[in-house]
């Protein structure tokens, strides 16, 4: 166990705790009873109390799990759980990511981890492990770029839950006019973080000064999503959700969503352009997403 845990162990001893739960940042726990389940698994009446016990966690994209079955071997879900049909509690060489440790085992765990008996309970599956791939350095909110590698977390955090109900036919979209709908698409957290990311980038550009490769024909102050490296992530959302939404709203329409230019407009008193005029651009449909509430509509 890394020496960085020493202060934590010392604090546990100072407070006379009976157990210590180690939880790494990459873990997402969705079951609020996880600690209760681990305590019950450690105190199993069938065998002596286990000094270290952990749940079964999996990294969704590559299948890696949170334990080492034999020393030096990083276990794979299919090999250990499915192929060998192991169920319940099993002894492993090392539990990783999440583990509940009995206080009397802490000192030995810190000095010689191999001598401490460790178990994983395959019945306890409270969440999953986040992938660190795709992490964008230098970004204010790097989790915005996690869609490809952490799809479940990204969707839960950034996609409005009411959108799924509309797609499934469990709710109806607000119809503002003929073929014109209001639909909650992203969460407020997504909108806030995207605005902050754009302001962090800061290179807002006006049409009359636009020398970008993806230039604009319309009077506006804007940043292209490609400039912050976010166009691919947005298009992944388009392919996975807009297609189903269009079919729901427009009676089975199954056109393949395509976007040639993705950008965010900025309206504020200190920008050169404060309007986006009506125009024809040849699009079959358009999505306009309001990122905040702080604006005034003028006729």
TrEMBL record:
Organism: Petrolisthes manimaculis
Cited InterPro entries: Collagen_mod_GT25 (IPR050757)
Protein name: Uncharacterized protein
Organism domain of life: Eukaryota
């Amino acid at each position: 166990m890394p020496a960085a845990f020493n202060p934590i162990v010392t604090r546990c001893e100072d407070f006379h705790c009976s157990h210590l739960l180690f939880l790494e940042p990459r873990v997402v726990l969705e079951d609020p009873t996880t600690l209760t389940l681990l305590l019950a698994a450690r105190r199993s009446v069938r065998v002596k109390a286990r000094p270290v016990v952990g749940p079964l966690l999996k990294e969704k994209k590559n299948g890696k799990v949170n334990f080492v079955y034999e020393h030096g071997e990083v276990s794979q879900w299919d090999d250990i759980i499915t192929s060998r049909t192991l169920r319940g509690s099993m002894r492993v060489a090392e539990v990783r990511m999440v583990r509940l440790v009995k206080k009397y085992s802490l000192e030995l765990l810190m000095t010689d981890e191999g001598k401490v008996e460790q178990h994983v309970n395959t019945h306890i599956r409270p969440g999953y492990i986040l992938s660190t791939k795709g992490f964008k350095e230098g970004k204010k909110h790097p989790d915005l770029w996690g869609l490809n590698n952490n799809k479940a977390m990204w969707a839960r955090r950034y996609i409005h839950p009411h959108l799924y109900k509309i797609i499934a036919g469990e709710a109806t979209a607000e119809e503002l006019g003929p073929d014109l709908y209001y639909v909650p698409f992203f969460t407020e957290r997504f909108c806030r973080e995207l605005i902050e990311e754009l302001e962090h980038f800061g290179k807002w550009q006006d049409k009359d000064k636009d020398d970008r490769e993806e230039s604009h024909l319309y009077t506006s102050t804007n940043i292209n999503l490609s400039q912050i490296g976010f166009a691919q992530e947005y298009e992944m959302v388009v392919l996975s959700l807009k297609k189903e939404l269009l079919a729901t709203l427009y009676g089975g329409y199954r056109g393949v969503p395509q976007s040639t230019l993705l950008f965010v407009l900025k309206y504020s008193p200190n920008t050169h352009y404060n309007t986006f005029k009506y125009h024809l651009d040849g699009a079959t449909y358009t999505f306009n997403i309001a990122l905040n509430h702080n604006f005034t509509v003028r006729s």
